[in-house]
């Protein structure tokens, strides 16, 4: 029997239960996967609290790494014994488990120089960073970027990668400790939003011009400050809503603030094409494998500590990446 975190209703961390499950044998197009490490992502809380609707009861988590134990009929992209990682959305839900059945299509073979723990901490965050920096805007050396949650898992990858591209990163943080972490990983400037006016500080740092792009994963509480930090015809990228959904607004606001652009992307739409997913993954693995980007795993949890892991995540106690070690 395997162990898995499951939920029978939406709500707070208390709805997460550790249960024994019978994994069974893979059907057509499936594999049975033994997990070694499982990723903990803020998006997991959206499934748990009902922001992302799903049929119940259900498993939890969309990212993990492990070893293929068995393959079903028609599976050709992986074989028994392969080291793999994955991330996705509803098609990979159920990652908080010691082993599971999963469609073979989302699986990505791991290079030998990428550890399982590293993969679980970086697959979603790395692919997210990749599409943000390599697909969503034509960044050039000398551009400026306002990055919210700069000390988080995505933030630390984006900061390092942006520095490689010659982008000046202004990162927002909630504590001086997080500011030190962000600066150590590529942020040129940090703003402590707990006592500094973000938009005002951005204008000071950019000689009144504003930034080219904002990556905002916070949402409701930072939305207006993000818009006010952009230069004329700048791009606002709403990556997440950690503080809650953004209130409705009149699109004329974008014109009034400088003919701004706004997008709300989803990772699923940037990895739907297998060729594009492979290209983005290869670029991430190359940077990490060569040591140009460090993956910082600052929190390790046991599977039975899922409730506490979610509490830590939502209270913003974490920095870098968090994983479950199986």
TrEMBL record:
Pfam families: ADH_N, ADH_zinc_N. Residues 11-324 form the Enoyl reductase (ER) domain. Gene3D superfamilies: Medium-chain alcohol dehydrogenases, catalytic domain, NAD(P)-binding Rossmann-like Domain. Keywords: NADP, Oxidoreductase. It comes from Hydrogenophaga atypica. It comes from the Bacteria. InterPro entries: ADH-like_C (IPR013149), ADH-like_N (IPR013154), ER (IPR020843), GroES-like_sf (IPR011032), NAD(P)-bd_dom_sf (IPR036291), QOR-like (IPR047618), Quin_OxRdtase/zeta-crystal_CS (IPR002364). NCBIfam families: PRK10754.1. PANTHER family: QUINONE OXIDOREDUCTASE PIG3-RELATED (PTHR48106), QUINONE OXIDOREDUCTASE-RELATED (PTHR48106:SF13). SUPFAM superfamilies: GroES-like, NAD(P)-binding Rossmann-fold domains. This is Quinone oxidoreductase family protein.
């Amino acid at each position: 029997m395997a162990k898995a975190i499951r939920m029978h209703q939406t709500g707070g961390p208390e709805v997460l239960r550790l249960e024994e499950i019978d994994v069974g044998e893979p059907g057509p197009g499936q594999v049975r996967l033994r997990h070694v490490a499982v990723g903990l992502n803020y998006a997991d809380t959206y499934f748990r609290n009902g922001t992302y609707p799903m049929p119940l009861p259900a498993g939890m988590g969309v990212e993990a790494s492990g070893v293929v134990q068995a393959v079903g009929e028609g599976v050709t992209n992986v074989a028994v014994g392969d080291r793999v990682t994955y991330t996705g959305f509803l098609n990979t839900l159920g990652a908080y488990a010691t082993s599971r059945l999963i469609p073979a299509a989302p699986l990505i073979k791991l290079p030998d120089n990428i550890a399982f723990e590293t993969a679980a901490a970086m697959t979603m965050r790395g692919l997210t960073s990749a599409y943000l920096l390599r697909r969503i805007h034509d960044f050039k050396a000398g551009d400026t970027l306002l990055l919210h949650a700069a000390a988080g898992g995505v933030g630390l990858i984006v900061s390092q990668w942006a520095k490689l591209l010659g982008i000046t990163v202004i990162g927002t943080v909630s504590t001086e400790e997080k500011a030190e972490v962000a600066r150590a990983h590529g942020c040129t400037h940090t703003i402590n939003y707990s006592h500094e006016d973000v938009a005002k500080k951005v204008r000071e740092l950019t000689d009144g011009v504003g930034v080219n792009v904002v990556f905002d994963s916070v949402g409701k509480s930072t939305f207006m400050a993000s818009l006010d930090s952009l230069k004329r015809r700048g791009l606002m990228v709403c990556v997440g809503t950690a503080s809650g959904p953004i209130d409705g607004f009149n699109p004329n606001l974008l014109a009034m603030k400088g003919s701004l652009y706004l997008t709300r992307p989803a990772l699923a739409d940037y990895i739907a094409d297998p060729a594009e997913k492979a290209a983005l993954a290869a670029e991430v693995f190359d940077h990490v494998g060569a040591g140009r980007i460090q993956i910082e795993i600052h929190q390790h949890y046991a599977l039975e500590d899922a409730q506490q892991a979610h509490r830590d995540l939502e209270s913003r106690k974490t920095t870098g990446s968090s994983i479950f070690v199986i």
